[in-house]
């Protein structure tokens, strides 16, 4: 029976390789899992293909470096009810919820409304944000649409960072960032470590392998079961001549990562490895 299961598994991995997919095994340990995040990208322009989302990649990269594991990313339209539902859902599942987009002076900038609705809150003009907006955009007219940037949930707290002029709006475990990368990137970079740093950092190493996945899949499956607190990933590469697959081995400490690498190398055919990237 075991032999039959192994054969089936090999066939599934061969099919996965042919389709250009990847394999991933187990999860990082419980300590790291406590620091999880969900990212909500907001904007009709993303869903319609008018704009490319680069914010989620930027946020994921910085959260990973802070020891935060991103569990889910979703893209939603500029709709108050949908935004509120997604925020409530994410807020109950992840330690941090980060939104990007839907913040601005126009009619379709409704993220603050969705955030307020998610937590049964009301919107108000925050006096400090009003002053910031007026100075930032040189607004003299009290009816200017730009003042909408100061119309935020009453329960909001303001998160300021070095060298950023506009604070991040925070309600409960939700942190709101603008959709324009020009503003999001410096703001998120300035605040990430202070707001989101976890107690541990991820240690990831890469192995470059010069054979298809099915030739080492059983070894990778075995070692993933032996090291339940280590994460293993296998990613076929089509555009390289000297290797076919990158295998990543990751945990929240270097010792476990190195021991898992050694065990995998012992189990897999010895001639398949091209290089190890530390």
UniProtKB/TrEMBL annotation:
Residues 38-198 form the MoaB/Mog domain. It holds the Pfam family FLAD1_M. InterPro entries: CinA, FLAD1_M, MoaB/Mog-like_dom_sf, MoaB/Mog_dom. In the N-terminal section; belongs to the MoaB/Mog family. This is MoaB/Mog domain-containing protein. It comes from Microctonus aethiopoides.
